[in-house]
Amino acid sequence: MTRRSFPWSRLGIDPTSDTAAIRKAYADVLRSINPDEDIAGFADLRRARDQALWLASQGAREDNGAEDEDEGELHGLGTLDHGPDLAWDDDDDDEDGGWDIAPAFTPGERTASTAPPELTEAQQRAQEAWDQLIWVLYPGGEPSDSAVSQREFGIGLTALGVLIDRAEEADLEEHDALDGALADLFARTWPRSAPFVEPANEAFRWLDESGSLEERPALRFLNQRLKGMRFHDKVQQPDHPLHKAWAELSRPGRAGMMDRLRVNRLDVHKLLLGLRERYPELESYLDPQRVASWEGAGAGTAEGFSNAGRGFSGSVLFVILFFALIRAMVALGGAADGDSPTDRNLPPPVVIDGPSAAEIDAAVKSVFGPETDMAAVRAADPVFADQLVLGIKNAEDNGGPNAYVRNRALGVADIAKFEELVALGELKKLWLSVAIKSPGQCKNVMVGDFRSLPLVLDKSQSAREQQLMRRLLDAKLLNHRSSKRGGSFSIPGWAIERMIKKGGLGIDELSAALKNPDHPKRCLVDLTMAEVILAEPGRVSADVLRAL
Amino acid sequence: MLVGIDLGTTNSAVALWRDGAPQLVPNVLGRELTPSAVSLAKGGETWVGQAALDRMATHPADTATSFKRMMGTASTVTLAGTTLTPEDLSAMVLRSLADDVEAATGERPTEAVITVPAYFNERQRRATRRAGEIAGLEVKRLINEPTAAALAFGLADRGDREPFLVFDLGGGTFDVSIVEMFDGIVEVRASAGDNRLGGDDFDEVLVKLVEPLLAKDQAAADALARLPADRRRALLTLAAERTRRALSTSEEADFTVVAEDTSLTARVTTDAFEEAAGGLIKRLRDPVIRALRDSHIDVKGLSDIVLVGGSTRMPVVRKALTRMFGRFPNSTVHPDHAVALGAAIQAGLLSGGDGLEEIRITDVAPFTLGVSTSTRDAHGRFHDDIFAPIIERNTPVPVSRMERFVTLGDNQKQVTFAIYQGEARDVKKNVKLGELTVTVPPKPAGEVGVEVRFTYDTSGLLDVDVNVPLTGLTRNLVIVDEEDRRSKKDITESRKRLEKLKVHPRDEAVNVALLARAERAYEGFTGPVRDVIGQGLTEFQGALDKQDPRIIADARDGLTRLLDEIDAQSPL
Questions:
Q1: A199, A151 contact by CB (below 8 A)
Q2: A127 in Cβ contact with A178 (< 8 Å)
Q3: Kindly report the CA angle at A45 between A44 and A50, in degrees rounded to 5?
Q4: Gap between the Cα atoms of B422 and B463, Å rounded
Q5: Does B236 touch chain A (CB under 8 A)?
Q6: Is the dihedral of CA B366, B372, B376, B382 positive or negative?
Q7: Average pLDDT, chain A
Q8: How far is B172 from chain A (nearest CA, A)?
Q9: In this structure, are strands B37-40 and B34-35 parallel, antiparallel, or unpaired?
Q10: d(CA A127, nearest CA chain B) in Å
Q11: Which residues pair with A521 in a beta bridge?
């Protein structure tokens, strides 16, 4: 007897490419064992059989040359094949760690491929619909973060309808290919694709796959947002249990005493916790300052709201860590990391109706100057652009677009770098210099309440404000929602000296004003301090600039 | 004696391996299919099968059907003051099937192979085992329904077969299996399904479709509305089932119910039904795609689409299938018999039956099995309830797999493994099968390793071994949960409960069934037809009172002929 190596040794035959012989050998060995008593032997035998069949197919492949290479190609929908995930049983793409949102689609590539000639009429219609959908989702052949217009929405929806009808009629393979291609396309073009996801889900039952071990990466991305959109719709309804909390947190500015009495603190925290866990992208609808003020208040007493320490009680721990979990976390596309609220893939859902484009542009120009329209804002900072649209939409609640953006500007202090801190300081100096003329307004500037503060700027002040705002926009800071406020800092001696000189204040009066925000001279002190420090910003630390 | 039983949602059947072939055993009415229905009356009088189904129209509150859908849940049914579990009800059907075998062979079966939907989870499987035990049958093996059907299909000619797909749509469950056959080896490559989808759902769609149509006739609609809810429901469901059957052979059919002597009719077209059933048809697609993906076979690689289960007779289903696969399905196997015949083949295999020496079956685990784990992310936050699979679904069984875990806390004293079955990342959405705790030596987090081995055998038993290499401590658990801990006592109690119920003597069963049928027909008609049935009923009851077997037999034949005639003429 010749010595054979695995898999042939297990099957008890000589190497062969005859699949029938391999199967027969497998059957013979299987009949000679009792799998339940020899589980390892059974597993071994299966492995041997599968390996032998694979070796046989490799041999056959060499014999036939490359003839059967086209076998797996999708008929009819050749041009759908612009993404990597269309292959029939290729569901291993979890491995590469996360859903890559960067558009793989390039118009140049697509025009190069032509539809195969054997397309049926229905397939041709589907093909045209697909092209229209692409046209809607990639305006001008480019990826875009802006919302679809009413007209584009109509065209896209019709095209999607044609594709869905086609999928209903098609066989399993074509259906599956369309399902995968649409999921892929919508994930890549999010948030522009947002209004189309719900109708597609209805046809392809995408949400059914939600939460399953095998959920496709594109669907994991879309389903989460789909649920987010649904929650967003629901929470707008007055009868939703968290509606009040939602409305409260969407209001700009800090929460006042009355707000705290009016709204249930537990609900607010429940909403925030739930939102951050499930739909982090929705937090951009909320006002950061309002959120921060509620969180600041709750932190001391709200035990159990924070995740830390949950289920962790020292001695008896019933939790374990799975080695492979690390691997799994990577494979799951960094479900934990990729979906964090700072992810750039998470602009808020698209708003279709609301103020007209012209109205929005006018509002935007009043904030950033005549050269900056909505498109320019979007180009500079797409995330903030969506927030701004919402801000303008709720302009009445916000006290107008200017007030809204001023308020946002105050929030950037804790992440801004030197240049922008100076710009912010200049802005505050500007506002204070205007506010100091009417009593009470100064206080509003200091606490960031621009709603009740109609700052009247003259032309040159206005231009200056627009210029500074534009700088903050270009630095992509305005989308930042924060924030820490207050804190102590020390003013350098040289600055104190100059302030005394410049403002004509006594040292006692100065220190009293600095300690008491309601001091009658506080406004003057703040303005003087801004002037003194901004005259030589390089002489102070960033903390001082930040605290201005 | 070992028998094979198809315990279905709508119908059940029993078969034997005899003389080198599987054979169905007819019931007392001479039919191969026994409706899975149970009806009780005050005082413990019991009807099972066709008679019980006929009582559904006349005594809906005391009659249970489709209880297979409740298997593995804690729900119970109260019929005529007796509270029964779904296992009890199933046991009554099983017992009636065993009676039929005893009558046919003279020998009482003691062991059984019972079929379950491939997509039944462990709880549902255990409930099925318990039902067998309550009925006094030792359950030698639970076999998946599509696997059984594949056996019946494949063994018909014993030829080798490239992978084929078994599409099994029954009354309440839906399974898809991909099976291959060569050299006597029947190999299941993958199974998928939906254990909440079947003919019953199509009936419901039909009821929803006709309700607005029926409401057009105000007086009749009011009559229907005045009926007690359970009776209205039963009448509508029965009418829907009849209409659905009628739609299998014609383009349109009348949906007819009789309420308070008023007959309500609505015409249903195939197109309208098809449109209304669109949502259900869509749900047929996912399991097929899943099974194909898991087995790495594409549609073109399938040699056949084999239809099993009564609901595959529906043209709307066949049409959808033809579209999905781009070809006509194979309907050569009897959709209602194949599963029971396959169960008998499995029974023959287990008992070393003649002519089965060369046959072996290998099946797969239909669900993923694993444990619940926690982890801490980069920010130090805990994430609980994460499902860590150990045996992936559609792995060939028997299988044994080991995974290693480590402690998450410093000086952790013990580790608890909660064992789950399912496909969701969050264990809370999966089915919990049990729990096992081991103590570990106190050490810094991550320094204590624990090995967990899952062994899943061909009869579906999951064996869990936990080993702590540091201390050499091992723990073993053959999956036991709350229900199982109770089950020994439960089974005895259930048996006692069922013993109190009075089953009609076998020689009376035919008469009892005919009475139930005539009563159902009486309720279902109005006018002169009702009078004729009433007359027939009175005559038959008179004959029964005389207690002369010959007179009874004559009267029975007469009434049966009458009812057959009426049935043949009307949609009812």
A1: no
A2: no
A3: 100
A4: 17
A5: no
A6: positive
A7: 73
A8: 20
A9: unpaired
A10: 20
A11: none
Residue B357 annotated in active site: no
Torsion of CA B537, B540, B545, B548, to 10 degrees: -170
Antiparallel, parallel or unpaired: β B63-65 and B77-79: unpaired
Chain B residues 285-344 with a CB less than 8 Å from chain A: 285-286, 288-289, 292-293, 296, 298-299, 323-326
CB B439 within 8 A of CB B414: yes
Asked whether the predicted pLDDT for residue B137 surpasses 50, the reply is yes
Residue B446 CA to residue B410 CA, distance in Å, equals 8
Give me the pLDDT at residue A365, please. Answer: 84
Predicted structure pTM score:
0.71
Contact check, Cβ <8 Å, A39/B399: yes
Name the minimum distance, in Å, from the CA of A536 to any CA of chain B.
40
Residues 44-103 on A with a CB inside 8 Å of B are 46, 72, 88-89, 91
The DSSP secondary structure of B105-162, one letter per residue, reads HSS---EEEEEE-TT--HHHHHHHHHHHHHTT-EEEEEEEHHHHHHHHHHTTT---EE
DSSP state of A169: H
Contact B428, B464 (CB under 8 A): no
List, for residues A337-362, the tens digit of each pLDDT value. 333 333 333 333 333 445 677 777 88
Nearest-angstrom CA–CA distance, B452 and A61: 41
Look up B42 and say whether it is catalytic: no
The rounded distance, in Å, linking the Cα atoms of B128 and B91 is: 9
Q: Give pLDDT, residue A348.
A: 37
Please name every residue paired with B364 in a beta bridge, in sequence order, or none if there are none. B396
pLDDT value, residue A267: 85
Residues in chain A closer than 8 A to B368 (CB atoms) = 213
Residues shown for chain B: 572
CA B284 to CA B168: how far, in whole Å? Answer: 10
A82-118 per-position pLDDT tens digit: 333 333 333 333 333 334 333 333 333 333 344 455 7
Q: Which chain A residues are within 8 Å of B184, Cβ to Cβ?
A: 27, 31
Pairwise CA distance, residues B450 & B46, whole Å: 54
Is the per-residue pLDDT at A49 higher than 50? yes
Tell whether A36 lies on the interface with B, counting CB pairs under 8 A: yes
Residue B278: closest CA among chain A residues belongs to which residue?
Answer: A168
Q: Which residue has the higher pLDDT, B527 or A320?
A: B527
Residue B485: its pLDDT value, please? Answer: 56
Q: Between chains, do B324 and A172 touch, taking CB under 8 Å as contact?
A: yes
Report helix angle A172-189 to A217-235, nearest 10. Answer: 60
- The per-residue pLDDT for range B262-281, each reduced to its tens digit, is 888 899 999 999 999 999 99
* B336 in active site: no
DSSP structural state of residue B447: -
Q: Which residue of B has its CA nearest to A47?
A: B396
**pLDDT of A349:** 38
B266-to-A450, A470, B217, B254, B314 alpha-carbon distances in Å: 67, 70, 10, 6, 20
| The pLDDT of residue A449 is above 80 | no
* CB-CB contact of B46 with B502 (8 Å): yes
B567 is a catalytic site residue: no
Contact criterion met (CB below 8 Å) for B399 and A43: yes
Q: Which of B122, B168, B180, B304 is catalytic?
A: B168
Core vs surface per residue A256-291: b (16+ CB within 10 A) or e: eeebeeebbbebbbebbeebeeebbbbbbbbbbbbb
Check: CB of residue A180 under 8 Å from CB of residue A174. no
Please give the Cα distance from B40 to B544 (Å, whole number): 21
Q: How many CB atoms lie within 10 A of CB B163?
A: 18
Question: A278: helix, coil or strand?
Answer: helix
Q: Do A320 and B406 touch (CB under 8 A)?
A: yes
